[in-house]
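Researcher: Please translate sequence to C-alpha cells.
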Amino acid sequence: MYQDVFGQDTTINSRDALEAWNKTLMAFMAHGAATPTHLGDTLTRDPDFALGHAVKGMFYLLLGRRELSETAREALGLAEASALATPITARESSFVNALKAFYTGSLTQAIQHLEDVLAVHPADTLAMKLSHAIRFVLGDGAGMRKSVEAVMGAYGPDHAGRGYLMGCHAFTLEETGEYARAETVGRMGLTVSPDDAWGLHAIAHVYDMTCDAEGGLKWLEGREAAWSHCNNFRYHVWWHKALMHLDLGQNDAVLALYDTQIRADKTDDYRDISNATSLLSRLELNGIDVGDRWEELADLSANRTEDGCLIFADLHYLLALIGGSRKQAITKLLGRMHRDAQSNRLEMDRIMASPGLSAAAGLEAFGEADYKTAFFNLSRARHTMQRAGGSHAQRDVFERLTIDAGIRAGLLDDAETILKDRTRKRGGCEDGYAAARFSLISEGRDASSCKVRVPAE
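Model: Translation complete:
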C-alpha cells in the first residue's frame, strides 16, 4: 500500500508503478497528451492494479465512441478480477463500481459512486476530476459547482491538486453565471498550476460570455504553453481563439486557425468534430463561404451514424452531414436516434428523446431551408438543451441556429425573445452576433411596415 501524489492510499505493487501512476494523475489533471502513455506504463509495471484498470475504462467511455465500449468492458473485467486477486480499499472499489455504472449507461450512478469517494476522501483530486468530467457530459453545471465547492476545504496550499481544483471551480462559476469570480479564481489557479489548460480555457469562456473578444485574445496571447502539451483539448482552446476573431469580424483569421490548428489533424473524435462543425456553422450564418471544408467532416461523420453514445456528438455529426449534403447518412443517423429514443432503456436514451429528437429535426429542416419547421423544433429543444452536455459556448451554435431560423421564417418577435434571453445570460452585453441580429430584426420590421403602408390618396 502506497500513497499517491494526492495523499490517497493506493493498492499498487511497487514504487516504480506508483511513480508511473502519479505521472498519470498529473497528466490527466492537465489534459496532457502523455496521459495514456503513463497509464500504460503503470499497468505494465502492475498488471493487477485494479484502480488503474477502472480509470482506463472510464477514460475510454469519456471518448464517446461505440467501438471503445468493448475496451471499457475489458478494463472492467480486469479491474474486477484484480480486486478479487488482491484486496483493495473501499475507495478503490468505488472507482470500479463507477466504471461498471458508466459502462451500463447510468452516468448519474457513476457520478454518485465518485461522490461517495469524495464524501470520505475530499482531497481525492482524481475522483473530483472524473465526477467533473462526467457531469460535463450531462451538462450539469450546477452539480459540477456543488461537487467542487464541497471539497475545497480539504485542499491546503501544499496539495498537489489545488491548482487543478481551482481551474474546475473557475469553470463551474462561469457556467453558473458568476463571471467576475470565475476569472479571479481561474487566474489564481494558474499561478499554482500553470499547465492547467482547463482553468485557462475557463477564463476564455468568461470572455465569451461577457462579450469581450479583444480581452479574450489578449488573455490567450503568449500563453500557448498552457495548452500546447495537451491531447486534442488543445484544438478546443484554438477554437475559443477562433470564436474571438469571429466576433470581431476577422474571418480570414478564423479560417486560418481552422486550417492550421483546429483541423490540423483530421480526426473523427467527436470533440474535434464539434469544434469544426460548430465553427463552420457560425461562419455560414454570418454569410462566409467556407469552401469545401464540410466534405472531410461529412466523410468522417458518415461513419459515426450508429454510435449513439452521446447526443452532443450525434448533433454535431448531423451538422457535418447536413453541411456535406449527405442525405442517406442523415436518414440513417436520424433513424437510429429515433430507435434509441423509443427504447428508453438508458439514461442517454432519455436525453436522445429530449432534447435530441427535436434538435435533430430542427437541424435537418434548417439544412433544407424550411425555417419555420426548423424554428419550431429548435425552440422546443431549447428548453432542455443543456441536458445534451457541453458548455454554454458549445451549445450556443444551436441558439444561433434557432434565432436565425426565426428571423428567416419571419417570426421576428419570437426570434427577438430568444435573442434577448441569450443577451441576458451574458450579463446584458451584446456580442457581434447579437448586435447583427438585433439589426436584422429591426430591418425586417421596417420592411414589413413598408409593405403594409397604405399610400396616401
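Researcher: Any highlights?
Model: DSSP finds 24 helices and two strands in the chain.
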